[in-house]
Amino acid sequence: MGTNAFVPSDFQPPTSLGTESFRLAPLGPQHNESDHAAWTSSIAHIRSTPGYPDGRWPPAEGMSLEENLADLTRHAADFEARKGFTYTVLDPSSGEVIGCVYLYPSASPEHDVEVQSWVRVDRAELDEPLADAVAAWLESEWPWERPDRHGR
To answer: Which residues share a beta bridge with 100?
Structure first.
């Protein structure tokens, strides 16, 4: 891996992770309405989730669907450019967005990837199973060696 590369040039980022309780897929504009509904219904819960210490996200005042679409478009572009990888967490039976997972370069020299995840407040019981599944996935499928999982 080059000094500025987030992943090796020949690495193929996984496009899914599935369990009985959820499945991950790359986040994109097609998830806009369901994603917006998911996080706006759970702002306080997400802000209390490990990994969201600065209180900037999600915005307490929310954002419009258009602003959310721009955010999802940015995440999809980061995925395509291999600068960061954001996955939507979907209910396996309904296909509804129930959370997100973010994998971005860490600003800390002690870590090579920052890992954040959240689920809707009505799916709070999945917070730890999601974090644990992502940790195992990172270990088995991804090239990083020093993830910052925010104490998870």
So the answer is: 88, 118
Q: Is 3 inside any structural domain?
A: no
**Structural domain harbouring 29:** 17-147
pLDDT in tens, 94-133: 999 999 999 999 999 999 999 999 999 999 999 999 999 9
pTM: 0.94
CATH number at residue 29: 3.40.630.30
141 found inside a domain:
yes
Q: 46: which residues sit within 8 A by CB, 6+ positions away?
A: 39, 52, 57, 58, 118
For residue 95, how many other CB atoms are within 10 A of its CB? 13
Q: How far apart are CA 134 and CA 61, in angstroms?
A: 29
SS3 26: strand
Task: Give the chain's domain count.
Answer: 1
Q: Is 12 a domain residue?
A: no
Q: Is 4 exposed, middle or buried (0-12, 13-18, 19+ CB in 10 A)?
A: exposed
Strands 97-104 and 113-119 turn out to be antiparallel
36, 68 contact by CB (below 8 A): yes
